[in-house]
């Protein structure tokens, strides 16, 4: 399981500040919903593919992986529209969603997590007035990205251990025998992680932790 | 850059090392450490003992992760109870399980985490991270997801993440427990080459070769304290009677 999708390259897309990329993503979303015509949506999709593959020099596999991940959802939406409305609306909706999914993939693959988190922290900065520390919000996002694959890996290990001892890994019983030990492990891990954060100076975090020039 | 700092930090004296005075610690009703009075000034100090003997709690006392129930721990004269941030800047801590220590998704981002907390400027941060990753053979993995590293590489990243902060002392809590022989040797070599004062909690007695002092813990007390040969012999004798 891979959440860290960053593909290191030295292209202009990679060098563009994360805030601008997120703004462009938001702009594209507004455009394809505000102007739902086939030329605009197809143009948006084509532009995303060109930016991703040619300008950002991303491997085609990055975009294909995202397409595969949503393919059944797109098929279901198309069928639903074909039955309930018409084929053109279904096509438009599917292409629109695909353009946005691929655009998000391009942004993710060309932007480091730290840069993305820095943008979130900047957006959250007004919350300092009510005592919220934006750096902490950023840390939570980064840690979620870091620990989701790790917890998935531990769940796999538990399932393997259960299966190796002849236990059931399916159904309600399988769920119980996986979830309970996983919860115990996650709680133990959380305790050690909190110690590690302390040891690495998490309490020293200034109100503005990130360098605004971070990209 | 605004940092919250201790307001009444006394002048620290590195020559004073780490002092534990009348330390006792409990978890609930269970006494995990008692009557610990030590002065740690040697460059290489090993800690051995059976599971549950209080070694890890002892290690955590040294950089203020655990504050003793009674008694005090002083690092360069700074009390861990009242100057915990300053103490943690001086005493780095490497955990047994690197997965618990790596908190950022990619290698370079995680190595930079402690420096960000210290408010180190971006350019210096990048240079120090690049240098430490190069030194530990992780430069080619800088942008890789941390969870895809091997166990040995993860431990190297955990060590790099601490060393990049340039602490004066480093505590290792069973750093080789999860490693194969090759990576165990690599970590042993890294520890050997460090200029800093090092305290290593371990079950790997070979790791203690060349150490200056080894403490043996049993039931929360220091039962042997001396050069590696005599302490390890005392430890082996203690385990024979279990």
CATH architecture of chain B: 3-Layer(aba) Sandwich
Number of strands of chain A: 0
Which structural class do the helices and strands of chain A define? mainly alpha
Sheet-strand content of chain A, in percent, reads under 5%
Assembly classification? heterodimer
Number of strands of chain B: 10
- Count the domains of chain A: 2
Largest sheet of chain A: none
Intertermini distance of chain A: 25 Å
Explain how this protein is built.
By secondary structure, chain A is an all-alpha fold. Chain A has eight helices and no strands. Chain A has two domains: 100 residues, no CATH class; 75 residues, no CATH class. By secondary structure, chain B is an alpha/beta fold. Chain B has a single domain, classed as Rossmann fold (3-Layer(aba) Sandwich), CATH 3.40.50.300. Chain B is 34% helix and 25% strand. In chain B, the strands form two sheets. A six-stranded mixed sheet of chain B has the order 6-7-8-3-9-10, with helices on both faces. A four-stranded antiparallel sheet of chain B has the order 2-1-4-5, with helices on one face. In chain B, β1 and β2 form a beta hairpin. The longest helix of chain B has 14 residues. Chain B is globular, with a radius of gyration of 18 Å. Classes of the chains: A mainly alpha (215), B alpha/beta (242). The interface between A and B is large, with 38 and 45 residues.
């Amino acid at each position: 399981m891979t959440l860290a999708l960053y593909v290191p390259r030295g292209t202009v897309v990679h060098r563009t500040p994360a805030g601008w990329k997120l703004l462009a993503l938001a702009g594209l979303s507004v455009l394809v919903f505000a102007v739902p015509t086939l030329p605009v949506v197809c143009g948006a999709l084509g532009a995303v593919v060109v930016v991703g593959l040619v300008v950002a020099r991303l491997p085609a596999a990055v975009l294909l992986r995202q397409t595969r991940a949503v393919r059944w959802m797109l098929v279901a939406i198309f069928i639903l529209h074909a039955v309930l409305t018409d084929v053109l609306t279904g096509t438009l909706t599917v292409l629109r969603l695909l353009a946005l999914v691929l655009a998000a993939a391009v942004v993710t693959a060309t932007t480091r997590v730290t840069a993305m988190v820095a943008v979130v922290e900047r957006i959250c900065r007004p919350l300092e007035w009510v005592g919220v520390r934006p750096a902490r919000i950023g840390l939570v996002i980064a840690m979620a990205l870091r620990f989701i694959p790790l917890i998935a890996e531990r769940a796999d290990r538990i399932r393997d251990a259960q299966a190796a001892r002849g236990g059931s890994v399916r159904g309600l019983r399988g769920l119980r025998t996986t979830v309970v030990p996983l919860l115990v492990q996650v709680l133990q891990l959380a305790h050690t992680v909190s110690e590690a954060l302390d040891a690495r100076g998490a309490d020293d975090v200034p109100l503005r932790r990130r360098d605004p020039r971070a990209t | 850059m605004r940092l919250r700092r201790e307001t009444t930090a006394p002048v620290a004296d590195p020559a004073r090392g780490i002092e534990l005075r009348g330390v006792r610690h409990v978890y609930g009703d269970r006494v995990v450490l008692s009557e610990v009075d030590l002065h740690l000034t040697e460059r290489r100090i090993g800690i051995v003992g059976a599971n549950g003997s209080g070694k890890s709690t002892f290690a955590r006392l040294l950089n203020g992760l655990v504050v003793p129930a009674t008694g005090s721990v002083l690092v360069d004269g700074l009390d861990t109870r009242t100057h915990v941030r300053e103490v943690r800047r001086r005493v780095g801590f490497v955990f047994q399980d690197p997965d618990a220590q790596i908190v950022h998704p990619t290698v370079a981002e995680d190595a930079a985490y402690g420096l960000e907390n210290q408010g180190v400027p971006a350019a210096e941060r990048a240079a120090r991270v690049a240098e430490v990753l190069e030194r530990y053979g992780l430069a080619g993995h800088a942008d890789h997801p941390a969870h895809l590293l091997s166990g040995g590489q993860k431990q190297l990243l955990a060590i790099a993440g601490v060393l990049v902060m340039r602490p004066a002392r480093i505590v290792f809590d069973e750093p080789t427990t999860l490693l194969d022989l090759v990576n165990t040797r690599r970590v042993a070599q890294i520890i050997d080459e460090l200029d800093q004062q090092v305290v290593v909690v371990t079950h790997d007695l070979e790791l203690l070769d060349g150490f200056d002092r080894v403490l043996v813990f049993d039931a929360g007390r220091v039962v042997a304290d001396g050069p590696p040969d005599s302490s390890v012999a005392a430890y082996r004798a203690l385990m024979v009677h279990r």
